[in-house]
User: Which sequence fits this backbone?
């Protein structure tokens, strides 16, 4: 009652050793462990539906693991391919320029920087062609800067704390 051609996997001896080593110890991601178990069971001659039932996976998922092993080898079968993700909104130099502005004194008539004020100032000074408030907020958060809470982000101390009076 099977549909299509049966997928038969025979692991290479070196791949078999790597799968056993992976399953033998150390912390691994659950996905990786399940894929290794699926490959081992298919190597032992079990069908994809049987392996799926044993591991709590669909037969299609097991078939895809086997297919990836055949097409791309062990690494491709066990691990996800890298995903490109979205490019960062600011490069390293732009980030440094914005942080420098945050560490400087706020504009005349202002006690402290706000995210909105920073966004306007950075665009006005042409430090970046275009930037949103949320991008600046995330940048400040990643550097643990909260200029809207403090009067001066960079505090200059001429005297030691115990000598102030």
Assistant:
């Amino acid at each position: 009652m099977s549909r299509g051609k049966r997928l038969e996997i025979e692991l290479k001896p070196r791949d078999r050793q790597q799968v056993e080593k992976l399953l033998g110890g150390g912390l691994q991601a659950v996905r990786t462990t399940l894929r290794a178990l699926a490959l081992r069971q298919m190597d032992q001659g079990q069908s994809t539906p049987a392996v799926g039932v044993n591991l709590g996976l669909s037969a299609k998922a097991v078939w895809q693991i086997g297919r990836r092993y055949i097409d791309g080898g062990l690494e491709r079968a066990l691990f996800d391919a890298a995903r490109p993700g979205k490019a960062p909104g600011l490069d390293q130099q732009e980030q440094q320029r914005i942080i420098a502005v945050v560490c400087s004194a706020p504009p005349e008539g202002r006690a402290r920087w706000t995210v909105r004020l920073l966004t306007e100032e950075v665009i006005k000074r042409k430090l970046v062609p275009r930037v949103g408030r949320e991008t600046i907020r995330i940048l400040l958060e990643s550097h643990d800067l909260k200029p809207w809470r403090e009067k001066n982000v960079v505090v200059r101390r001429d005297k030691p704390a115990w000598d102030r009076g």
Q: What stands out?
A: The mean pLDDT is 85.
